[in-house]
């Protein structure tokens, strides 16, 4: 908490809208609201504040955190940093040249009004944002996209993301691992559908164990911040802001070696329907690259 106070102090202590509240009280109030997923009325009563004050405080703290996003959420840039991340994934079960695990997760939001409301309803029938995350082997969030509507396919989010363009431009000397909802490319490996050979089966097993880091990342985040697990009742604009702020807090906790033993077991999400476009998404060069990789590494 002291680290977060120091991080955002200059951003929130000078604002007249702070209403004379100390930086410590504002940070504690925001953290309690996000972590315990309390109704804002309850959090307001606990801290002796109005519900509107809670809303203002959470937004103020989130804005201060989000302004530091580039400092805490970033892909490894230097060769040395990239090799450290690659080494972390390789230590899981020997899968080489992986720089990130990618997937999307749904964060529940209140019903959106207007003509666009239907586009926020996901396959499970509730309104959500479909949030794309890339994490490393330590469950640290390296890239996040938190503005797509719940009905959007994972593959489309990646296709139109900046992180894909960076891989296309050759910025990284390793690849991503994704599930069957993504298209197979030179820089994003997916599981082999209907594996036949021993090597393909071995590849799939290693792929699943290594890619499981992203499922664990989602599980840890949603248990650490219950609002991500149970949903938000605030405005859509604030939800997008809060998701980024909470990703930063998650990374800070990892950097400070905060234990996660208290968290409940991770429940993997069902992405079965994401496989419909499977074959049309795969590139020929990706298929050949993966085939050679399996033959030489497994």
Topology of this protein?
Layout: H1 2-12, H2 23-36, H3 40-47, H4 51-66, H5 69-72, H6 79-93, E1 98-108, E2 128-135, E3 141-149, H7 154-159, H8 162-168, E4 175-177, E5 188-189, H9 198-224, H10 226-230, H11 236-255, H12 278-281, H13 284-297
Parallel strand pairs: 1-4, 4-5
Antiparallel strand pairs: 1-2, 2-3
Helix pairs in contact: 1-4, 2-3, 2-4, 3-4, 4-11
Descriptive account of the structure:
36% of the residues are buried. Helices cover 51% and strands 11% of the residues. About 3% of the residues have low confidence. A hairpin with a 5-residue loop joins β2 and β3. It contains 13 helices and 5 strands. The chain has 298 residues and is an alpha/beta fold. Strands 3-2-1-4-5 form a 5-stranded mixed beta sheet.
Short description, anyone?
The chain has helices spanning 2-12, 23-36, 40-47, 51-66, 69-72, 79-93, 154-159, 162-168, 198-224, 226-230, 236-255, 278-281, 284-297; strands spanning 98-108, 128-135, 141-149, 175-177, 188-189.
What class would the helix/strand composition place it in? alpha/beta
Number of helices, where a helix is a run of at least 4 consecutive DSSP H or I residues: 13
- Which percent bin holds the helix content? 40-55%
Rounded mean pLDDT score:
87
> Main sheet: which strands, in order across?
3-2-1-4-5
Task: Please compute the radius of gyration using only Cα atoms.
Answer: 20 Å
Overall shape: it is globular
Major sheet: 5 strands, mixed
Please report the distance between the alpha carbons of the first and last residues.
Answer: 46 Å
User: Ranges with pLDDT <50 over ≥5 residues?
Assistant: 270-279
User: Based on DSSP secondary structure assignment, what is the total number of beta strands?
Assistant: 5
Sheet-strand content, in percent, reads: 5-15%
Order of helices and strands: HHHHHHEEEHHEEHHHHH
């Amino acid at each position: 908490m002291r680290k977060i106070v120091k991080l955002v102090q200059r951003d929130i202590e000078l604002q007249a809208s702070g209403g004379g509240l100390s930086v410590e009280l504002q940070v504690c109030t925001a953290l309690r609201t996000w972590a315990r997923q309390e109704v804002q009325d309850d959090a307001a009563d606990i801290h002796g504040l109005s519900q509107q004050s809670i809303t203002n405080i959470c937004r103020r703290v989130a804005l201060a955190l989000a302004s530091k996003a580039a400092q805490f959420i970033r892909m490894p840039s230097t060769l040395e940093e990239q090799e450290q991340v690659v080494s972390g994934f390789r230590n899981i079960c020997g899968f080489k040249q992986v720089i990130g695990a990618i997937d999307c997760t749904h964060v529940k939001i209140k019903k959106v009004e207007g003509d666009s409301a239907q586009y926020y309803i996901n396959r499970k029938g509730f309104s959500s944002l479909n949030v794309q995350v890339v994490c490393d082997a330590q469950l640290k969030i390296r890239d996040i996209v938190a503005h797509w509507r719940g009905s959007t396919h994972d593959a489309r989010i990646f296709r139109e993301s900046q992180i894909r363009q960076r891989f296309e431009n050759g910025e990284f000397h390793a690849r991503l691992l994704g599930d069957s909802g993504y298209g197979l490319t030179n820089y994003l490996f997916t599981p082999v559908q209907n594996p036949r050979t021993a090597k393909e089966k071995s590849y799939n097993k290693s792929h699943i164990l290594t890619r499981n880091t992203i499922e664990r990342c989602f599980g840890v985040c949603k248990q650490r911040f219950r609002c991500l697990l149970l949903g938000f009742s605030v405005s859509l604009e604030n939800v997008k802001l809060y998701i980024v702020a909470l990703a930063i807090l998650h990374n800070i906790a990892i950097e400070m070696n905060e234990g996660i033993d208290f968290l409940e077991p991770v429940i993997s999400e069902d992405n079965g329907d994401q496989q419909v476009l499977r074959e049309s998404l795969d590139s020929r060069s990706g298929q050949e690259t993966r085939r050679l990789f399996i033959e030489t590494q497994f």
